[in-house]
Specification:
The protein is of the alpha/beta class. The protein is built from 8 helices and 13 strands.
């Protein structure tokens, strides 16, 4: 990549990445595509071909994200973000003809929010996608668009979600479960979707919550938006998520019942979900705890 004066673009000091002085490639350059594929195939051969995918970290989809995170000069190779994104689609289309496995591009949250359509296009072209920002503190309309884009991604394409905590998440059980339940709005037994989470820095203990082992059963369809809440039905439970950053919303009474919380206590509807909160409404408590582990 080059700046307006024709100089190669390198990562500057003082950005969020530690690799100052690193060159950034031009994805639309055919010679770079060929070099990349040749280099990677050589590596695969030397390692005995034991890989089944490759993660591309620090993947930026817009100039705003690139310059903001890396402290680099604006690029001049492409006049618009759309042109730059199309070059990456071309890159993966060409390179994957030479590489025998998919890529998982770790797309920055700025690009996911500004150009959500690129999120799904990139996932399909590369063979996989990773988000470190889901669900973060997206406005409800951005959250809605992300769910809509995920529906466009074939179920055999890998989706990695690493819920990276905002300040104050560390050790906060409610916020960790909020992230997990948000993931369940699109996860499925027949979809290649995986979730991990961080609780602040690495020296903070990570805990395994019983909610991770519950047997929700098969999903009964996609998530729906009801009264500004995102709701997804499973055989044994209902996932309800309030992604609104400011307002509480009520989850109204449903047909059927009775309903329980995850501890097996009777639950009375309607219930009020505070901003940025989620809950699991249990339908079949006996089946729910049969994890099969």
């Amino acid at each position: 990549m080059k700046d307006a004066e024709g100089n190669p673009i390198v990562t500057g000091s003082g950005g969020e990445l530690s690799n100052a002085g690193t060159y950034w490639p031009d994805p639309g350059n055919v010679q770079w595509q060929e070099f990349f594929a040749k280099k990677l195939n050589k590596l695969l051969l030397e390692l005995g071909g034991r890989w089944d995918a490759i993660l591309i970290d620090d993947f930026f989809g817009t100039q705003e994200a690139q310059t903001g995170f890396t402290n680099t000069a604006p690029w001049a190779n492409y006049q618009t973000d759309a042109a730059y994104q199309n070059a990456w689609i071309e890159f993966f289309t060409n390179v994957r003809k030479k590489i025998p496995f998919p890529f998982v591009a770790n797309l920055d949250g700025v690009s996911v929010t500004l150009t959500p359509d690129f999120f799904s296009r990139l996932a399909i072209a590369a063979g996989g996608i990773e988000m470190e920002t889901y669900p973060e503190e997206y406005p409800i309309e951005d959250f809605r668009r992300i769910l809509e884009e995920i529906k466009k991604i074939p179920k055999n394409v890998r989706i990695h979600v690493n819920s990276k905590p905002s300040p104050g998440w560390a050790g906060n059980v409610d916020k960790t479960l909020f992230a997990y339940y948000s993931f369940l709005l699109f996860a499925d037994r027949d979809r290649e979707a995986y979730w991990t989470y961080k609780e602040g820095v690495s020296d903070i203990p990570h805990y395994w919550f019983k909610e991770f082992d519950l047997n929700l059963g098969d999903s009964l369809g996609d998530a729906k938006e009801i009264n500004n809440l995102f709701v997804r039905m499973f055989e044994n439970a209902i996932v309800v998520v309030n992604t609104d950053n400011e307002n509480a919303h009520d989850f109204e009474r449903l047909d059927g019942g009775p309903f329980y919380d995850v501890a097996g206590n009777p639950m009375t509807l309607p219930i009020t979900l505070e901003p940025r909160s989620a809950v699991l409404v249990v339908k079949n408590p006996t089946e729910l705890i049969r994890t099969g582990l």
